[in-house]
């Protein structure tokens, strides 16, 4: 195998450089002389995560597709902590990203199965207040492209970045209570009635019809008889534009039998 560097990171004081190689070794180098100081052995697959500790120049974190997370002392070339991301019934989960907290007391990782793993000191009770499953209701919505080849949300015909903040739902698409909806950026100060999603029935790829969040519904809109969702408003607007175009075509169309011959008709 031809060795290839997959990731590189400097330590906190820039005295060392750590490289991850596709033979699953981590190499620690003296950044001034280029001398190889240590080979760090432990990973069984390629490593794409190298994170230095925010203030301790000795500490480096590594994680890879083998599901292993290591905390290394790069000055000694030894591992101080190890965690293997085993998922019950599904084998191990590859670790895609890791970050230290600013105080260096915690670090968080994400894996290939959509899990957020939080490590550190202290009590885990505050995290138990958050639902186990949190998705945006727009996460798996289909996209289309318009005439300019720009991406649009298929349901609302809007550019994704112009859509309102999404709702938090569980894995089955059921919305979480309003106290969790305020965790979404842009909904922090919303009144309760603006945090009630509109539910609708949609067909899955298997042909099963399930109830899911399709838009936003407010009490004020229900009372005033306005459009209950952004989707309904967009449909109404498109219909209005189509009616206007149809009326304009009828006004500009030639009238009388003398103009019928030799005049090309619009398809």
UniProtKB/TrEMBL annotation:
GO CC annotation, single: nucleus
A biological process term (GO) from this entry: regulation of transcription by RNA polymerase II
UniProt WD repeat ranges: 1-39, 40-82
Pfam families hit by this protein: WD40
Coiled coil: none
Keywords for this protein: Repeat, WD repeat
Residue segments, region Disordered: 240-267
Gene3D superfamilies: YVTN repeat-like/Quinoprotein amine dehydrogenase
Comp. bias regions, Polar residues: 240-261
Name this polypeptide is given: BRWD1 protein
Organism encoding this protein: Anhinga anhinga
């Amino acid at each position: 195998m031809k060795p290839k560097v997959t990731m590189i990171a400097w330590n906190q004081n820039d005295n060392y450089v750590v490289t991850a190689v596709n033979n699953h070794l981590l190499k620690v180098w003296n950044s001034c002389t280029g001398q190889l100081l240590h080979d760090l052995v432990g990973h069984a697959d390629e490593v794409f995560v190298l994170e230095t500790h925010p203030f301790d120049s000795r500490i480096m974190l590594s994680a890879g597709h083998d599901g292993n997370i290591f905390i290394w002392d790069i000055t000694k070339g030894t591992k101080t902590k190890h965690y293997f991301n085993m998922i019950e019934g599904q084998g191990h989960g590859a670790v895609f990203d890791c970050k230290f907290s600013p105080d260096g007391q915690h670090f968080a990782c994400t894996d290939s199965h959509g899990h957020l793993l939080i490590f550190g000191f202290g009590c885990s009770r505050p995290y138990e207040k958050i639902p186990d499953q949190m998705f945006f209701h727009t996460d798996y919505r289909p996209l289309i492209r318009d005439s300019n080849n720009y991406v649009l949300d298929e349901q609302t015909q809007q550019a994704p970045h112009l859509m309102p903040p999404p709702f938090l739902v569980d894995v089955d698409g059921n919305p979480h209570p309003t106290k969790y909806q305020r965790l979404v950026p842009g909904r922090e100060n919303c009144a309760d009635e603006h945090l009630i999603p509109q539910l609708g029935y949609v067909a899955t790829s298997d042909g099963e019809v399930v109830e899911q969040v399709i838009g936003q519904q407010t009490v004020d809109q229900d009372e005033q008889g306005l459009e209950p969702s952004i989707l309904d408003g967009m449909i109404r607007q498109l219909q209005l534009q189509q009616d206007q175009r149809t009326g304009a075509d009828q006004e500009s169309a030639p009238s009388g039998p003398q103009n019928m011959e030799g005049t090309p008709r619009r398809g």
